[in-house]
Amino acid sequence: TMRDATGAVQSALVLGGSSEIAEAIIAALAERRLERVVLAARDTGMAASRARALEARGVQCEVVAFDADDVAAADRVLDAAGPVDLVLVAFGVLGEPFDVAADPASTAALARTNTVGAMTATHAAARALVRQGQGTLVVLSSVAAVRVRAENAAYGASKAGLDGFAQGLADAVHGSGVEVMIVRPGFVRTRMTAGRPEAPFATTPAAVAADVVRGLRRRDRVAWSPPILRWVFVVLSRLPAPLWRRLSR
Fold first, then answer.
1. What is the pLDDT of residues 209-239, one digit of tens each?
2. Whole-number Å distance between alpha carbons of 126 and 157
């Protein structure tokens, strides 16, 4: 069954099942009509603890191993999961702040997961949903993709690759019964960002989840979180480079 007019879904697959943002999104969906979820994660132990919490709320859960750096892994997980209403692509690594003097292998490793792995998983999910004739694909991007800062050059660029691919993919599947929604959160307070200086409009996984549910209900192509960042980046994306360099430090 496809999601209804309220954005509720009955079944979901999460690629990146140990993500805190994904956990909050699934919890928000569980408050509505979610009956079944498959959590695909590299850290199956953490995903299993999240599955137990969901099962206590009456959601049928399954945990499967998923390594985003294995480009064949998403197809295997999708085959094992069977038909689902929604696929959430939610994995990624932040990496260290960008340093020109660092070993370029660190950039390669980050791009392998965030761009190659995520684009491959997104493509595989879209293909599976098109084959079943319906479904929603939610891709977790970042505002860092909109205009890349020096401090997160590798991370921002890796997310920009995924974000651009998801935009093109949304057009490619238009009319197939499959919809794509890109999520662009700002700074989210999670384990991944612990110890990093907070950016303006910092938010929480639960707030991102609420924005995602709202976006599903409205059938938005892009869900910004918090929504004000959409208008902030209308301005920031047009700033002259010298001003952007000063503001983005």
1. 999 999 999 999 999 999 999 999 999 899 9
2. 22
Tokens at 179, concatenated = 């919809």
**1 pLDDT higher than 50:** no
Distance between CA atoms of 133 and 175, rounded to whole angstroms?
Answer: 10
Catalytic residue, chosen from 155, 165, 187, 224, is 155
The angle at the Cα of 162, spanning 108 to 148, to the nearest 5 degrees, equals: 75
More confident residue, 101 or 4: 101
Give the relative orientation of helices 205-218 and 20-30 as an angle to the nearest 10 degrees.
Answer: 50
Secondary structure of residue 38 in the 3-state scheme: strand
Least confident of 45-59, 74-88, 120-134, 193-207: 193-207
Query: Which residues make beta-bridge pairs with 140?
Result: 183
Q: How confident is the model at residue 7 (pLDDT cuts 50, 70, 90)?
A: low
- Structure token digits, residue 167: 């935009």
The structure tokens listed for 111 are 């791009």
Active site residue 43: no
- The pTM of the full predicted model, rounded to 2 decimals, is 0.93
d(CA 139, CA 44): 21
Contacts 24+ apart (CB under 8 A), 6-10: 6/32, 6/217, 7/32, 7/213, 7/214, 7/215, 7/216, 7/217, 7/218, 8/32, 8/33, 8/34, 9/33, 9/34, 9/85, 9/86, 9/136, 9/216, 10/34, 10/35, 10/36, 10/85
Nearest in space to 232 (alpha carbons), one of 189, 194, 171, 187: 187
Q: Which helix (H) or strand (E) holds 136?
A: strand 135-140
